[in-house]
Task: inverse folding
């Protein structure tokens, strides 16, 4: 099973992004620091929790405000997971583009997902505290 989306241009000699790989290889990139690496690993762990809690409610992924273009970018769970794994392995984020015609009602922010998970955790903790004599 492949963790990342399949590249529709893989092996295509007219791939419009074919030259980007060469540019990325030439670009000097610093590897992730241990703190940055730990942050990405924590994001991956959190992402699993958010998906497990929010997918049954119809949420398809997360929306992130892009620092470069100042536009919201909508990522489904698998794409975001693949992007984080790519960042871990290469030390560089992927080139991104906005999703095609996403329905904003099906995406939430990291902050919302974190708050939702915290609320579920608190509710479960309170319930178990009430049951303990």
Result:
């Amino acid at each position: 099973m492949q963790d990342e989306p399949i590249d529709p241009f893989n092996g295509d000699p007219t791939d419009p992004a074919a030259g980007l790989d060469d540019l990325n290889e030439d670009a000097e990139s610093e590897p992730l620091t241990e703190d940055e690496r730990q942050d990405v690993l924590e994001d991956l762990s959190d992402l699993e929790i958010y998906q497990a809690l929010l997918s049954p409610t119809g949420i398809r992924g997360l929306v992130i405000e892009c620092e470069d273009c100042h536009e919201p970018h909508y990522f489904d769970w698998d794409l975001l997971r693949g992007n984080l794994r790519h960042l871990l392995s290469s030390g560089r984020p992927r080139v991104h583009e906005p999703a095609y015609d996403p329905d904003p009602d099906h995406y939430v922010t990291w902050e919302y997902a974190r708050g939702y998970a915290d609320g579920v955790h608190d509710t479960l903790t309170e319930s178990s505290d009430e049951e303990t004599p």
Q: What stands out?
A: The longest strand covers residues 61-65. Residues 110-131 form the longest helix (22 residues). The mean pLDDT is 84. Residues 121 and 127 are 10 Å apart (CA to CA).
